[in-house]
Write a structure and sequence with these properties.
The protein has 82 residues and is mostly helical. It has one domain: Orthogonal Bundle (434 Repressor (Amino-terminal Domain)), CATH 1.10.260.40. It is built from five helices and no strands. The relative contact order is 0.22.
Length: 82
C-alpha cells in the first residue's frame, strides 16, 4: 500500500487554486462544498484565506484536478510549490 503525500501548494495560493478549480467546474460554493463533503462556510473560509483545507480535503481537490486533464495539470503547475 502506497501512502500518497498531499499536494504541497504554496500557502498564499491555496485560496486561489480552490476558487479557480471551483470556477473551472462551474460550481457555486455550495455545489463545490457538496462535491468535497464539506460545508459552504468551509469553502468560503478557504477562498477568503481564513482557513486551509485538511490533508483529506487536499486529496479530494487533487483528484478533481486530475479529472480535469490538461486544465487541471495547468493549475497544478501554476500553484504547486517547488
Amino acid at each position: 500500500m502506497t501512502i500518497k503525500k498531499p499536494l504541497a501548494i504554496k500557502q498564499p495560493e491555496v485560496e486561489r487554486i480552490i476558487r479557480d478549480l471551483r470556477l473551472a467546474f462551474g460550481f457555486t460554493q455550495e455545489q463545490f462544498a457538496a462535491q468535497l463533503g464539506v460545508t459552504y462556510s468551509t469553502i468560503n473560509r478557504w477562498e477568503n484565506g481564513r482557513s486551509k483545507p485538511s490533508p483529506l480535503a487536499m486529496e479530494k481537490i487533487e483528484g478533481m484536478l486530475e479529472k480535469m486533464g490538461g486544465e487541471g495539470q495547468d493549475l497544478l503547475v501554476k500553484y504547486l510549490s517547488n
